[in-house]
User: Fold this.
Amino acid sequence: MGALELTTAQRKETVRKLLEEYHVPSQEIEESLRLIEEIAELKAQKNAIALGHNYMTPDVFYGVSDYTGDSLELSRIAAQAKANILLFNGVHFMAETAKILSPEKKVLIADLDAGCSLAESITADDVRKLREQYPGIPIVSYINCSAEVKAEVDVICTSSNAVRIVESLPSDTVVLIPDVYLAGNVQKKTQKKIIPWHGKCMVHELYSVVDVHITRRYFPEATILAHPECKKEVAALVDFVGSTSQMIQYLKEHKPKQALLLTECSMTSNLRKEIPEVQFISMCQNCPHMKKITLRKIRDTLLYEKNEVDVSEPTRSRARKALERMLELSR
Assistant:
């Protein structure tokens, strides 16, 4: 989505309207608006910017995030930003990625326990064992992994460029970690043999073939979009499969009458304001880790400059090489 160039007053009004639509009690709304104002003052005092992932709740997304998007886009923005402090409103591996690309800046996250089921499904030691098991075979990791895992692989990929990265490698076989469903969806688009890991996103794996059939029955005009972290059986039945940024681009270009997004629920909530021409159908699956990021925690984190995310050398430099190789292969 990019930069949210909103004044504090505009942010408060946007959040007020959104929360009223969701019938949030007035007392809670007023508390949210006070926190938004406090956070704006702290950002100005400390030369800080807030980066908001697409899965943040609307109060965080519109209320305090200066830039919004997927994890890689936000880390790129962070590397170019002239700020002393980067506050990453997302999960821990995303803040780590920002630190890898911006080692000179202080990177904060509102909750250090905001994890990720994918990132936690594989360790650096697991990658080293894969090297022994598949000698000479390139290992590609989805960006949803820890800095330690990034440091052990050959190249990183995102959900939007995974096929391109796999196709660019000089090998007929590729190990693709950690998401087994992303690996399965990539396998459908390449002649190369994909060796998967067994990791899963705890949100996307909940969407089923039945969900698609029910939507087709009761909302026959709806366009269904799925993230490639969904099961390949689900992906085979929908109208479009793509990353969060690709889904947003598709919706803006095609503007279907109705749409159902098989991804984290808050993205649908945020897009209702972004693309009002589309009627969004909700089939909510929430990420409990993303929901750990709240306005109160953001305020306290900035106020005390706590919850700093750091990546030690040489892990950072090795992980950066894997990220930079992705950028080179994606051109």
The chain has a mean pLDDT of 95. Residues 260 and 282 are 7 Å apart (CA to CA). The radius of gyration is 20 Å.
